[in-house]
Amino acid sequence: MTVDIKKAQDVYKDAGESVIFTTLMLNHKDLKTEKDAIAEFSDMSNSIINSMRIRDPEAQAHIAWGFGSDAWDYLFPNAPKPKELENFKEIKGPKYTAVSTPGDIFIHVRSKKMAVCYELMDQFMGILRPITSVEDETHGFRYIEGRAIIGFIDGTENPAGIESMDYTLIDDDPEFNNGSYAFAQKYIHNMEAWKSLKTEDQEKAIGRHKFSDRELADDEKLPNAHNVASKDEEGGVEHKIVRMNVPFSDPAKDITGTYFIGYSKDFAVTNRMLTNMFTKSDRLLDFSTPITGNLFFIPSKTTLEKIADGDY
Questions:
Q1: Phi and psi dihedrals of 96, rounded to 5?
Q2: For FRET with 116, which of 90, 230, 262, 281 sits at 20 to 30 Å CA-CA?
Q3: Which of 10, 104, 154, 173 is an active site residue?
Q4: Annotated catalytic residue 154
Q5: Do the beta carbons of residue 240 and residue 157 sit within 8 Å?
């Protein structure tokens, strides 16, 4: 099937200048009330977004939101279910573990202005706050030159522009085509230890030159360099997803990290990348501890219309 980007949410590379990631838990107390609120949000969210884009077109607001597996089962027990939507299963490597954490509703808002992110989330939560509690809220920012917080250029291997839709939009699950899977993972970094490495040792750990972003020769990389360990080459073909690494920090508290979001049409690809990272003890994990990990389904606008109309 040919995908239709007009029916899709914003599941492409656009990290934004300012970002809010929010993970919510449904109250799981009054199904009718909660389902009615979700139907209202499915109906109203696009209007809220369009209104904000008219009010401040230069802010370039982009939004994606969706459901965790338990939320889908709770809200829509008699409806079809996206075929890869399940609770993320932790990945235990020889040294480090990709943890699995709860999440019912996920919202990813980014813009050139934090004021716009705030306004959107304030309106969203006016609908969602009565039926949810907050599991995590993370405010991210664009670092200098768009680099990751560890100083390297981010997203070099990302599919660009329209090409990204070939990797993010579901095209083989008819009920849910033009939707996407989002994997969200929050890392805390040991920045003191990372900064204590010489630049050439950082480059060997990542597999790229720090300032020019050129890839190192294979014999210059560590065997578990990040751009080696995080690849998925199942079947002898390199598979891709659209990924964003968003910095966040409370610098006075010495808390600095990266919020990773990966959008894909096939979560199996993302899962293989994660499995490779953790089973091969990706060198970057010596400085980066995952504290969350959850999988969400990002519905197409067609699916949101069905939810709004009560068809599920």
A1: -135, 160
A2: 262
A3: 154
A4: yes
A5: yes
